[in-house]
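worker-03 picked up job from queue 'complexes'. Input manifest follows; two sequence lines, order preserved.
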Amino acid sequence: MAHTEKHSDWRRVLSPTGNTGDAVFRLLMLGAGLFVVSIVIAMVIALASDSMLSIRQFGFPFLTSRQWNPIKGEFGALPFIYGTIVSSLIALLISVPFSLGIAVFLVEQAPHYISRPVGFLVDLLAAIPSVVYGVWGIFVLAPFLRVYVEPPLAKWFGWLPLFQGPITGIGLLTGGIILAIMVTPIISAVVRDVLTAVPESQREAALALGATKWEMIRVVLVNGAPGIAGAVILGLGRALGETMAVTMVIGNRPEISASLFEPSYTIASAIANEFTEATQDLYLSALVELGLILFLVTFIVNGIARTLVWNVTRKTGGVGRAA
Amino acid sequence: MFSWIRSFQLVVSLAVLALLLVLGGCVSGGGGTDSGSIQLQGAGATFPNPLYQKWLSDYGKLHTNIKIDYQSIGSGGGIKQIQAQTVDFGASDTPMKDEDLKAAPAEILHIPTVLGAVVITYNLEGAPTLHFSAEVIADIFLGKIKKWNDPRIVADNAGAKLPAADITVVHRSDGSGTSAVFTDYLSKISGEWKEKVGTGTSPSWPVGIGGKGNEGVTGQVKNTPNTVGYVELAYAVQNKLPVAQVKNAGGAFVEPSVDSVTAAAAASANSVPDDLRVSITNAQGAQVYPISSFTYILIYKNQKDAKKGKALVDFLWWAIHDGESSAKELQYAPLPVEIVKRAEAKLNSINAGGTPLR
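worker-03 finished. Artifact:
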């Protein structure tokens, strides 16, 4: 006992319960938490300081300029920002309904002997390396879209500027579709967890009131809405930062065009493509500034989405804050 | 009471164990460099990487005490690293610019090792062998010739069946020495190209879609009908792609091959400047393939460490003599004799504190 009393002062500060194991554990966990935060801060500082040259040279117009010509030393980020956001939106547009469908089917409708293996396969999609998706995109998806999808789109919806232009199978649409395939397993996995977390009593209550199965599922979906929104954000985060697969099919052309058939460019692809040969300091700095912009875009999108989720959660008291 | 003491002991002993492992790792890691063996680091161009790796493996077998590592991080990275002196030698597909040389702390020499070429490949039904004049290539990549059956393409390809389809241009999306050589050629033969686009590793392409790497360009050309793109010679030969014959400055259509590329270097030998930094695109001569270039190893003239410097010079000497024989089988064009002589003189001038290393 004398042993513990001797050191009780510092120990009490660290651990009100007077238990040294607790104190050590607390310190370790605090360190781990601070470590992660400090990495994020260090990254922002490094990105900002390395992009100073470009920020000084171009200022705010860097964000609004469409010129990207390393030979002439002209750098503008707008086509990359546009390509990043539009390809991610296409991805969400396609993958969210699919993911919801998969999750509802697996949780509410499929018998166990189907839902387990199918759920496992969907999860497996998330484990495929993105470069494999890219190769598949070049050799399978792009030719398929060129032959079977883009011509009918151009024929029936060609009056929309979205579906005009050359049909090559490479471009913004293909980039968006490959992203959709990549984010679907992430979104559906989280939505599955969310739906599973909705209390069984809700379903029983709905059914007891004479609801049909569809009406019951609607109740479940409304209950899980915040969690579903969180799942969508996770998917969006992946889509915004995805590099390799998109690079291989998006066409890598820094231009803003109304057509989804035209090639485009994302921020992550630009950095991956041009970093190795960026010899001039200004060029390198402009690429780092692109990285900073991607960081901020991701940060802002996540911030907005989390606020939305938080608002909905507060109102409905729903479940599924897993994300 | 004892439980926390025991857990505390456990934590401490684990920490000590981890520390020992880390220290042990350092010691054994540092133990490799004993008195006899020499380690050299190089980094740079991706284009000659397959050949350099073969050279390093072959040379390593002959000299077991010398270990040379080469990382293919791109020409830009090679230049940056040799400037920063973080590697013993750099490598680049294009010669360093004057301002890059000035930014380096000391004089850097360019040692040419082999030659490469850029070939025009395409996807047309029936895969006819096409003939392109310089002006036609420039106007296709400028987006001025839009259809495959354009009269100017037809004029040089009387027998070939050319569709009335749009031309889809495929170019490199990643910064690349291949793009630099190709745009250097286009700038020489087209005033409009020089003014509008210029020469560089990541030019702003007037038209087309970008593929990442030689494999990305090839993949998109192979999978998309009516495309045209450019890749390295070695890549095209190994993958059996259709390649165009290009009209050279002498007016002859020449098929890209190891021999026609070496011929381009031999034809330009007299005009190679003293520092060997030269572009040999659009060279004069009848058998010359016009889109050819040297690839270089970059090395400081004054080596800080005599022993490492000697090992490096010996290796390079071996490379431009014995090494050249394995170039051809990997589809790299060996240096012509005239250039080997010039490179020898450069290697002989390398010294450590005034003492020549050869």
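worker-03 released lock.
Chain B touches chain A through 41 residues (CB under 8 Å).
The mean pLDDT of chain B is 88.
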